[in-house]
Design a protein that fits this description.
The protein is mainly beta and 149 residues long. The chain has one domain: Immunoglobulin-like, CATH 2.60.40.10. Helix content is 0%, strand content 65%. The strands form two sheets. The chain has a five-stranded mixed sheet, with no helix packed on it. It is elongated. The N and C termini lie far apart (62 Å).
Length: 149
Amino acid sequence: MELLIFAPCLKVVVDKEDNSLSLISILQEVQVGFPSGAPESIPAGTSAPLGWYAFALWRREESEAGKRFEQRVVLRSSAGETLADATTEFQGDKLQHRVSLRFVGFPVWAEGACSLHLYLREAGQAEWEEFPAFPLEIKHVLSETKTTP
């Protein structure tokens, strides 16, 4: 399979009339607001209520027609910690394949540089092929709490 597009985004929209594709709000940086006085360290496993997708567009080679594939997406911190991980299967029956993995909640405890990794293998095979990772930044932003007299 040849990778044509790989990106994290907030929405994946496919037009029913002409089958055109739109990726809405490609994620390069996720800012998470915390009130001033919030704990310095956010507990591991903390997620923001943000649904998002990891989208990949593949082009199949002629020799891959009819084969089943597994796609894996892993979000890792700069320290190598796994923040999110999901796997799905698809059939190589079309020339191009759109694969959207939906994540519910965005991990926010690991501030800083992250990367979204993409892997593919033929179903049943042991070895994954790794593709170029997509860089992301998670920023913690402190907001001042204002009181009204």
